[in-house]
Structure formats: structure tokens, C-alpha cells
Amino acid sequence: MDILEGLNPAQREAAETIEGPLLILAGPGSGKTRVITHRIAYLVKVVGVNPRRIMAVTFTNKAAREMRDRLQVLLAGSVEHLSLGTFHAICAGILRRDGQAMGLNPKYAIYDDEDQLNLIKRSLQDLGIDPKRYPPKTFQNAISSAKSQLITPEEYAQRSRSYFDEVVRRTYEQYQVLLAQSQALDFDDLLMKAYQLFANHPDVLSKYQSRYLHLLIDEFQDTNITQYALARQIAEKNRNICVVGDPDQSIYSWRNADLRNILNFEHDYPEAKVVYLEQNYRSTKTILEAAHEVVSVNKDRKENALWTDNEEGTPLRVVETFSESEEAQFVVSEVASLLDQGEAKPIDCAVMYRTNAQSRALEEAFVRYGMPYQVIGSVRFYSRREIKDVIAYLKLIYNPWDSVSLARIINVPPRGIGQKTIDELQQWTKGLGLPLYTGLQRLAEDKSCSPLSARSTQALIGFFTMIEELTRKSQEVNVVELLDAVLQSSDYKEYTLELPDGDDRWENILELRGIASEYKDLKLPEGLTLFLEGVSLFSDTDELDEKKDVATLITLHQAKGLEYPVVFIVGMEEGVLPHIRSFDDPAQMEEERRLCYVGMTRAKKRLYLVRALRRSLMGGTNANPASRFLKNIPSHLVQSTGLFGEEPKAAPAPKPDGPDLSAGDHVEHPKFGKGVVVSCTPTRDDQEVVVVFDGVGIKKLLLSLAQLKRVE
DNA sequence: GCCTCTGGATTTTTT
DNA sequence: ATCCAGAGGC
């Protein structure tokens, strides 16, 4: 039996090269996943490597789960011992097991963005920084970016160049103090602390280095500096590190992914072998060529020789509609007609868009038509308020130091503990140098030491007693029973049902309960540990159901790694795709182009590129010109459809004085000089024009007032 | 302390 | 258009 049977020569080489560093450059649809799974199977079955000595890192949990499923088939068991997961999940495990060497509580909490932002706000408060002048989000980004490059607060201080840098440094420092007090790590910490653990504790590092004979990293183009450093640490001893990626599909620089990782790889591992997977098995020649034309405009890029044996296929369809609702209507009616002709089933169709907000119009049309669909991740399950509240209870029971969870639920449902009480409590515990929870404990032991009114004190003690009781219970019941106890003693059910959309919210909680029941056979606290870890690291693509016969609505980012016979990319407009925020940065513009490329290469048979002449945004309406990416697709690959739908009957707005402008036009203004029109938005009886003036910047002008002249 | 109202800001993508 | 924070009334 040959485990590598059916692989093409390049794929085979990639799977068989197991000694030393290996870089696999894998274009879209080139059978990358197949290569990875077969490589692991080859290592285990042919070379005889024990699965526990292999670590495979994926980009999402879903990818990890799929790979495990596939390996289960190839290997028939013994897959459990394989270390397989995202960097975050793998690091979470390492820190849970060995973090004590660096003084980390194994029951550390994991903070997501929202928790993180809450704690940053508190840091700003502690430092007396005005969140109006300095938006907390800015700090969140700065801190995350620092951690993704292994920059500690001390190092940040050394690099600090401006006053603003200094403010960031102080916030970063204080934020870390609060995290430590809460015995919590944020997402970036999971990676950075694991790195530091290895860097400062050679014994721990050596344990992992000896264990992992083979390290494999997928989606390498989307790793950040810290992840790369971690990989280097783990692979240092055996140097069997295999990375798989495609620079053209790098779309996560905003999450601090760094393309230098791929470029540095051959530098850091000069003995590395490089394998190119260039045969595409997914798309038609037409789709592949069009996608290539779009991405090859990028300057910062290495040319590749992606090709396919597949048929020419049908031409791309480029479709214009009047409005976003007609855009949605077109999509649904086209799906319906493909269904009628027996060309496709709903499950074969995906609609992709740049921003989640765009899913709404689509969803309406699908509902109206009665076309079955699923939306991926528009409102993330785990960021729903009710879910976060219930989880906060569990997190607090698990780790009473977790101040963010404590603050979240101390008065939810309302139990007479207002902001003032919380502030005073905080003041008091701070003075005593105690964590909040210990402060509550002290109150409960001796009411008379309370600095607060009897009423507030009683409310606090009531809350504390409830949590204590639940904590006691958590020793003897499973996760579901604990969750039920939380709902019971907090009256959360009654509270939720009172809220707007109460029934839906309650449904969500029941769904969470269902997820918890998957952990009910595990002993506590381990069951709770794993449940909370799973919940914290869960991602949205995880909820994608690939078996239900429904169409999929999904962002371009989330679509990475997926494929569909029929793909619609909507919002092919300047300002949407490419997104307006990328206009002033060529590197970001290149990323938008790659994003478009990723979307196009998801399609196997049919690809539709759709745009709306008018799109409502933030209340107003925008008229966006066609996406520049459309212009890069050779016309012989395209069948253009004229306008879809009827022109809206509404009387056209009276034309204001001034030239007839559209985005891209060059204009001149008496005061601001020359510039380029970014967008035109009709208002009630005028037009708002956004112009980028040379050397002046972006200005919003009213067409009737601004004396704009059109120039060539 | 809690609820409601208003004004202001805000929209990219997510482990 | 929608969400959020802060203010003010009960």
C-alpha cells in the first residue's frame, strides 16, 4: 500500500521531504491540505514517527478539526496524541501545563478583545488619561501590535519617540499590571508568554524541543513575528520544520501577520528546500486566469506559475445593479435560476463580501425569496451579551481573580450594586492592597469594616455569598449542572426574557448549554477548564455547517480555505472592495487586491462579480465607481450583463449648482487647490463631495457651496 | 440605584 | 442606521 498514491510529483515531494526545513509554496486549490495530511500520515505510517512527536499548527480551530478527521481516516486511530491546533490553542495548553515555572496560575483566564478593551479603559482611568482624547481602541491596537512583535513594555520605552508613544507605554505597563492582578492573559499574551517561558526556562523548552521531532505550520503567510519566533524555538533542536503558505493569499496584516516570515524563512534556514505546488485542481481556466490578472498587478509579489488542466468553463459574469437591495435580489434570483436549471444546489453557492454590514441586504433578499441560507459570523455567538454574561459567571467561579468577569456581572441582573458602589469598593480595596474579590470576602466576614452604606454592603455580600455557594457547588457537579445552578441562583432566565429579543437570547443560552453538555462527562475542574478554553478560542468559521443544503453568506476573510462551485462577490466598488481605508496606503491596497484574489479563487465553476451603483452607508447614499479590480480582468473572460432591475422611480434629486462629479474626477478648489474626488453622496437637495486635496488632505464639501471646478 | 432619553460617534477584516 | 455613553428624572 502506498500512502502517497494519487499525489502529483510536486505534492509527493512535499510529503516525502521530512528531513530538515521545508517551505511549501502552495497556490489556491493546489491540494495543500491533502499534502499536509498525507505528509503526516507518511511520517507516522511509513517513517514510524510516534504521533505525539508531531506538532501541526493551523490557522483556525475548524481547520484543525478537519485535519484531525481526515487523519483519523488515513491513520485509523492514534491521532489523539498528535498536537494539532492553532498557535493560540497550543500555547494555551503549554502555559496551562508548564506556565507555573514563570509564576503563572494554571487557572489563568483568557481575555478576548472585549475583555481586553475593558481592562484598557480601566488602565486609562488609573492613569488619568482622557479616553476622549485618546480612544481606547488605539491603545488596544498598539499593544497588540507590540505583543505580536515580542516588544515588552520596557522595550517599548526604549523605542518611544513621541509623546504619544510615551502615553502608550504607560498604558501598556498599567494594562499588564491589571492583567497580572486578574491572573489573565489576552490572546497575544498566549503567544508571547509561551515564547518567554521558553526563552527563560531552558528546561521547559528542552522538554518540548525533544518531544517534537516534526513541526508543521499551515497558512504561514498569516503568521506574526511572535509566532515565527515560537516556531523557531520549538524547531531549533531537530530543525524539521515544514511551513506551507502562499504570499498571494496573505490577508491578515491588520492582525499583525508579517510577510517577512516567509521571506526570512530561507534566510534563517539556508538549508531549506522549497517545493512549489502549482497545479490548481479547483477552478476553471477562465476563473484562474482572471484571478491571476487581478493579483499580478501587485508590485510586492513573486510571480508563480499556477496552472490548471480543468476546462475553460463559462465566462465570468460582471453585473451592475442600481442599489444594494437589487444587488441582493440579483444574487438570489440567479441562485434560483441555477437551481431551476439543475446547475447547482443551494449548498454549492456562496456569496462573499468585504464587510459584515453587507450581509444584511443579502439576508433580507434570501428571506424574502425563501431561499435557504446561513450567515457566517455576522454577530459572533460568543460575543453576544447574554452568552458573555453567563460565561463571565463561570469564569469568575473558576478564577475569582478575574476582575473583568467580576465587573461584568456584579450587577447583572441588577441587584442594587451601582457604579458608585463599585467605585467605592474599588477605592477601598485598592487602599488595602487587596483584589476586589478578597475585598468582598472581607466584607462578608465583617460587615462593620465596610466603608459603604448598609444597603450597598448587604447587596455586595449577597452577591459574594451567591458566588461562594456556586464555587462550592463547582467542586461536585459537571459543567452543565454548574451552568444550570448559575442561571438558577442569579435569576438570569427571568432577567433575559424581560430584555428586548428576550426569547432569542434565551435560545442562545440554551444553545450554550448544549455546547456545555459536550463536556459533562469530564471531571471538574478539568471539564470547566476545557469548556472555558474552547469557548475563548472558538472562532466563527467553526459554526459553518458544510452539510446543510443552504447557500453560504460569508466575508472574504472567512472564506479563505473554502471552495464553492458558484461564487458571488458583491460590492465590487471603489470604497467597498477595495475598502476606503486602504486608499492612502499602497501596502494595504495590495492586500485588498489579494483579498479579491482569495475570493475569486474560491470559485470552482462560476464566478459572479456584482456591484451596485448606489449603496446606502451610515444613513446616506453613496454612488461608488466600479472597483479598480474589475478593470484588470480581460474582457474576453467576461460576459457583462447590463443593469439588473428597474431604475428606481423616485424623482431624481434636483441638481445642485456645480459640475457633475463622480469619484475619480480631478477638481480644483480656490482655497485647497487641486484634488481628486473620493465620493459623491446625494443629500436632500445637494451633494456632499469628499475630495482628497494635494498636500491638504481629505475635505467634505457641499457641491452647491464649494466652488469646485473640474479639471483634466 | 435604575431607567430613559439624547447626542455623538461610528463601520474592516478575527485568533 | 445603529450603537454607546453620559445626563437627568424618578
Compact overview of the structure:
By secondary structure, the chain is an alpha/beta fold. It has a 7-stranded parallel beta sheet with strand order 13-14-12-15-16-11-19. Strands 3-2-6-7-1-8 form a 6-stranded parallel beta sheet, sandwiched between helices. A 5-stranded antiparallel beta sheet has the order 23-22-21-20-24, with no helix packed on it.
Set out the fold topology.
Layout: H1 9-16, E1 22-26, H2 32-46, E2 54-58, H3 61-75, E3 83-86, H4 87-98, E4 109-111, H5 113-127, H6 136-147, H7 153-159, H8 163-181, E5 184-186, H9 187-200, H10 202-211, E6 214-217, H11 225-235, E7 241-245, H12 260-268, E8 273-277, E9 279-280, H13 285-295, E10 307-308, E11 316-321, H14 324-340, E12 349-353, H15 359-369, E13 373-375, H16 385-398, H17 403-409, H18 419-432, H19 436-445, H20 454-473, H21 479-490, H22 492-498, H23 502-517, H24 526-537, E14 551-555, H25 556-559, E15 564-569, H26 586-600, E16 603-612, E17 615-617, E18 620-622, H27 628-631, E19 638-644, E20 666-669, E21 673-682, E22 687-693, E23 697-702, E24 709-711
Helix pairs in contact: 1-2, 2-3, 4-9, 5-6, 5-8, 7-8, 9-10, 9-11, 13-26, 14-15, 16-17, 16-20, 18-19, 19-20, 21-23, 22-23
The chain binds a DNA duplex (15 and 10 nucleotides) through residues 59-61, 86-89, 112-113, 187-188, 190-191, 251-252, 254-255, 354-357, 377, 380, 411, 414, 416-421, 455-456, 536-541, 555-558, 579-582, 591, 595, 616-619.
Structure description:
The structure is a single chain. With 712 residues, the protein is α/β, with parallel strands linked by helices. The chain has 27 helices and 24 strands. Strands 13-14-12-15-16-11-19 form a seven-stranded parallel sheet. A six-stranded parallel sheet has the order 3-2-6-7-1-8, with helices on both faces. Strands 23-22-21-20-24 form a five-stranded antiparallel sheet, with no helix packed on it. Helix 5 (113-127) packs across helix 6. It is globular. The N and C termini lie far apart (70 Å). Residues 648-657 have low confidence and may be disordered. It binds a DNA duplex (15 and 10 nucleotides) through residues 59-61, 86-89, 112-113, 187-188, 190-191, 251-252, 254-255, 354-357, 377, 380, 411, 414, 416-421, 455-456, 536-541, 555-558, 579-582, 591, 595, 616-619.
